[in-house]
Every structure is written in structure tokens, then in C-alpha cells.
Amino acid sequence: MVYLDNNATTPLDPAVVQAMSQFLQEHFGNPSSLYPLGRRVKEIINECRHEVASALGAHRSEIIFTGSGTEADNFAILGIMDAFPEKKEFITSVIEHPAVLRTAQYLEKKGYKVTYVPVDSLGVIDLDYLEDAITPQTALISIMHANNEIGTIQPIEQVVSLAKKKGVLVHTDAVQTFGKIEVNVEKLGVDLLSVSAHKIYGPKGVGALYIRKGTNICPFIHGGHQERGMRAGTENTAGIVGFGEAVKVLKQRWKKDKERIDQLAETLKKGIEEKIPHSKFNGHPEKRIKSTLNFAFPGLEAEAILLALATKDICVSTGSACSEEAEEVSHVLLSIGLKPEIARSCIRFSLGRFNTQEDINIVLRELPEIITKLLSISSFHPEGEN
Ligand code: PLP
Predict the structure, then answer these.
(1) What is the pTM of this model?
(2) What residues contact 69, with CB distance under 8 A and at least 6 apart?
(3) Which residues have CB under 8 Å from 372's CB, separation 6+?
(4) Which of 94, 142, 148, 288 to mutate to test the pocket of ligand 1 (most atoms within 8 A of CB)?
């Protein structure tokens, strides 16, 4: 199988499987219990918290484990808006993940004013628009670090500098950047930042929210005193152990992995452009996660391409996994100005740690054939267009 959907989820690293299964066999204690059986589990959780925190340039007291990246996004936004009841405005961008966009829509239903900052044709947010949108009523700005569909990296440092001038807090969704490029809360200057374990070769169902020390935020789940009373509920202990181990592995190898993965992605990009000349690359030429490649294949339906590739055991995506099920046209691709019929022809290839040159060779052999075959039964003729 050739797995090129690493932005949707990553395979577990073998070290993560090992750490989780060993933990599950040896520890069943409740981390809130005061006897040694429980206290040991609490210690292990805190070691994992330290792993995650140090990878982000944070202190371990600034990390809250959550049930997903989605939950971390919800927590950041709703927790801040609740903490500043006198401020009724929230700013985000048009290309956020549904975890942020749907939360913004929920706020709108509750009477908040939400501003959606537009992006240019490369997917970069309009900073002037953002600056104009900030008012004394703005409690929070949430702009993703990089986009999951096209990989464009946003100028978060500049967002922070605009926000700080006006005393507004900044959250960034770093689910797609953690493990792929440097993510450091001090360098970025953000107040809140979301990450998720299953995008970095860890387990699904566990994420984390960084909350800068001293930030005023309301608890997200009410109940026991777990996670400093901010997120009640007995911890997903094995999930957290897997997350901690995934981060440990990441620290050792991400830079080397990045070089190799980026090189493979570049070979795939060049190969597609050469062999399928009417394809169109989406996203920023430079400021993007290099392992994410989004291509339009005008005249075709992305689903048809995806299914044809699946028959060859090649896994790709038509965009974000979430919008795929809903069969919506990607809001990201529409926001960068693609016509709906072009947006419907787009395929995302996202590479990861376990991809090889052989994977790329297979795709470059199968994809052009599939595109030629599908075009031969479509009414679209690329040459006629040019
Ligand atoms: N934010 C971004 C940018 C994502 O790509 C994803 C997952 O695809 C999420 C949030 C949601 O993370 P999770 O799957 O852990 O809920």
C-alpha cells in the first residue's frame, strides 16, 4: 500500500505501540488515586506533559491534555470567550479547519460577532483586513498555523504583533505544523496553541492545548480536578503515554525526516507537473508545509481519481477528511478563488515518515495513466482549453 494521506492521520510509530502496550500491561491505576499505584500513573502523565511542553518551548504547567485537536480548538475559543463576557467579538480566517469554523458559527448563534479574514490566491490571510477588524470588543483571534488542505503557512508572528498592540489574545491551530516545521510558542508569541497526537505518529483521541501562564480562561469540561480542573474526566492514560512517546521520537528525528520527506514531495510535485502538464498546483510556492501537495486535475472529479488510485492501493484525499464525508466543495479551495468545478477536481497528497522513493515511483507510474484514462471518457480536452 502507498499511504499518502498523512495529513488525515499518520500510522503509529512502532515505539509508540511498544510504549502504549507496555503501559497498558503494567499500569491500570487511576492517576487521581493517592496510593502508589495511582501516583505512579500521575507521574507518568506528567513526564509526558513535560515531553509535549518542551517540544513546544512551553512549561509543563501550560499544557492541558484533551480528547483531540478538535477539543483543544473548542476549548481555546469557548474558554476565552467565556472568560471575557464583556467582549463579544471573535476573529478567525475563512480557511480554518471545521474544528474552529463550526465553533465560530456556534458563537454567532449565541449572539457573538465573528469576523472571517479572507485569504489571497495562495492561501495567505489579509493582515490589513485583520488589523481593521480588531476592536476593543475583540477577545480572541484564532488563525491556523498551516492549512491542512493546501499547506500554506500563516504569518502568525505578525498576527501576534497586531493583536498585542491592541491587547487581544491569539490562538493558533498547530495541528498540521507540529512535527513538520518548528512550532515554538515563544517564537510565535501566541497565548494558546492546539496540537493532536495522531498527526505525529501517536494515537487517535488525544490532543493538547497550550495555555500561556497567566491567561484568563474558563474550564472546558466540568467535574473532577483533573488537568488542573480545566478539563475534568479521568485521563486517557494510554493515549497520553502514546502521545508522549510520539513526541520523544519526534524530537530525535524530525529534522532528518523533514529533509527526506520534503525531498520526496518535491520529486512527486515535479513528476506530476511534468507528466500531467494540465494539472494545477494549489497553495503557496514557498511558505507551505512541503509534504502537502494539492493539485487540481481540471475536467475530472476528484472522487473518480481517488477511487481509481484506491484500486491500485494508493491512498490520497480529496481535501480534509471532514469535508469529504459531507461531500461539500472544499471551503479552502473556494476561498483561494478556485471555481467549484476546479475545486471538485483537487487531490491532496500528504507525505510522512514512512514514505519511500518507491512510493513516489508507483504514484508517478499509476497517476498519469489514470488521469489519461479518465480524461478519455470525459468531455473535457485540456489541449482545447489552452
Ligand atoms: N485542526 C487541523 C488543522 C486539522 O488538520 C485537524 C485534523 O485533521 C484538526 C484540527 C482536528 O484534530 P483531531 O482529528 O485530533 O480532532
Answers:
(1) 0.96
(2) 97, 99, 173, 175, 194, 195, 196, 199, 207
(3) none
(4) 148
Measured from the Cα of 70, ligand 1's closest atom is 16
Helix (H) or strand (E) holding 160: helix 156-165
Confidence of residue 321 (pLDDT cuts 50, 70, 90): very low
Alpha helices (H) in 59-97, listed in sequence order = 69-83
Contact by Cβ (8 Å): 79, 71: no
DSSP string, 219-285: -SB-SSSTGGGTB-S---HHHHHHHHHHHHHHHHHHHHHHHHHHHHHHHHHHHHHHHSTT-EEES-S
| Residue 223 CA, ligand 1 centroid: distance in Å | 25
- Put the strands of the sheet holding 192-196 in their side by side order: 63-66, 207-211, 192-196, 169-173, 138-142, 89-93, 113-117
Q: Which atom, in ligand 1's list, is nearest to the CA of 321?
A: 8
pLDDT digits (tens, 9 = 90+) for 126-173: 999 999 999 999 999 999 999 999 999 999 999 999 999 999 999 999
69-83 and 98-109 helices cross at what angle (nearest 10)? 30
Q: Is 115 in the pocket of ligand 1 (CB under 6 A)?
A: no
Residue 81 near residue 139, CB atoms below 8 Å: yes
On average, the pLDDT of the chain sits at 96
C-alpha–C-alpha distance, residues 54 and 356, integer Å: 30
CB contact set of 129 (below 8 Å; sequence gap of 6+): 117, 118
End-to-end C-alpha distance for the chain, whole angstroms:
36
| DSSP one-letter code for 290 | T
Give me 327's grid cell.
Answer: 461531500
